[in-house]
Amino acid sequence: MRIEVLEVVREATGDVAVKFRCSFGEGCGRWTNTALQPEESCEYSAELDIECTAVLGQSARPGSQGVFSIAEEWGLTSLNGVVEGRDPDGMLYFRLSDYCLTMIESEGENGTGMWLRLIVDSRCIELYAQR
Q: pTM, whole model, 2 decimals?
């Protein structure tokens, strides 16, 4: 997916956090490409990974039908998308837009075709980007 970096924060731990804009909203995440430093107001092609487990009733809730979105507030990121499939290990294929499909660990019943709203700590969002 294409992102525009809005803000870069270099944390004391050495991690680099970025606030970004994409076609379905704005979010925050950890920058994981150490060979490329993010720059504010620059655009990148990025892979988005969600490093948490989707548990219905906890980190996952029924989402808004037909609406792809990402939003960040108070250190939490809300992602609304659709489950496109599930592999035998319980990993979900989670679509966040026409251009963004990611996998996420899952517990419980999160079936194909179900719209989910995930609410995760923004540090669980990882971005691997290139120009």
A: 0.91
The token duo for 53 is 């487990």
Query: Does residue 34 sit in helix, strand or coil?
Result: coil
Task: Please say whether the beta carbons of 81 and 115 come within 8 A.
Answer: yes
1, two tokens: 């997916």
Kindly give the pairing relationship between strand 125-130 and strand 25-31: parallel
Q: What is the pLDDT of residues 11-38, one digit of tens each?
A: 999 999 999 999 999 999 999 999 999 9
d(CA 29, CA 21): 11
- From the CB of residue 60, how many other CB atoms can be counted at a distance below 10 Å? 26
pLDDT digits (tens, 9 = 90+) for 33-79: 999 999 999 999 999 999 999 998 899 999 999 999 999 988 899 99
What residues are paired with 3 via a beta bridge?
A: 44
